[in-house]
Amino acid sequence: MRKSNPSHVYDLSYSVHPFVSIQGDQEPFSLFQQFHQAITVLTACVNGDTSITLGIAKNSALNLLAKISDTQQRIFFDEERKFRDPFPTKVHSWQIPGIQDAARNFEAVFKAELENQAIFQISPVSIYDTEAMVERASCSLAPEILKLTPPTVRFEIDQAGKCLAFGLYTATGFHVCRAIELAMHEYYRFYSGGSERLKTWGAYLSNLHRLSNEADEEKSPHKSTVVLLEQIKDASRNPIIHPRVNVTQTDALYLFDIGKATISRMVYDLAEKHYSMADGYMNDSFVDHEDDFARSL
Fold first, then answer.
1. Residue 222 contacts residue 297 (beta carbons within 8 Å)
2. In angstroms, rounded to a whole number, what is the distance separating the alpha carbons of residues 96 and 26?
3. pLDDT tens string 251-289
4. Taking Cα atoms as reference points, which of 156, 188, 158 lies closest to residue 174?
5. Is residue 259 classed as helix, strand or coil in its secondary structure?
6. How far apart are the C-alpha atoms of 113 and 258, rounded to whole Å?
7. What is the dihedral of CA 112, 116, 118, 119, to 10 degrees?
8. Are 76 and 83 in contact (CB under 8 A)?
9. What is the pTM of this model?
10. pLDDT at residue number 215
């Protein structure tokens, strides 16, 4: 999947279209600038350096590029690729043969190709910026949380953001739940002291409940965090795996937001104990005291 940039289509059309109607004698400096711009834009397009993907129009683009390049060389440069001296004072129409026909051919083929391309406009979801959701949804986490979040968790949040932006709401739920489970494994691993990956959410929650009831609260997970994980499992995670359940945009948006909040809570719990999910133990404390930000997670 490639991001389409409409400005690249505009640049190409702006550079090529003047040659469609070119006729009569031309002012040399203006023509040289038009040649230079068209060569630059066409070269980028045929080399795949823009968001434009040329299919059947590529051959006609190469033909137009060749005619413009050859004509520019013949009129403005000598055999050593230096500007002619004296520089031309006028360019006659008979000196630029074939460019008009090549430009018209390319424009017609490119227009036909654009009409068959699947280009969609994506409406924003809630207050989320569409481009940010498609490219970096994990950056919607608080910066302090993001830097302590494992890459695997960030990746799943990014995938969830793409799915939410494109209206794939069930897939959004799956990726959010994968992100939560990855974070929950790291959370469980810290408090249990083991590295074994458990088979189900139920197994993780059963062990986390047991650990949260231990006498030493400093070495046990927060009960409120475990309860939140259990609520997500029962209310969201379990239902979405059934084909009879229709996941709406509202459902997906709710799960996306509460999933991020839950992951943030787990990351923050461990950060209070000088531990980063992403990097292990930290030298400095993440927080010095419980502030409003912490209480909001």
1. no
2. 10
3. 999 999 999 999 999 999 999 888 899 887 765 545 544
4. 156
5. helix
6. 43
7. 30
8. yes
9. 0.70
10. 59
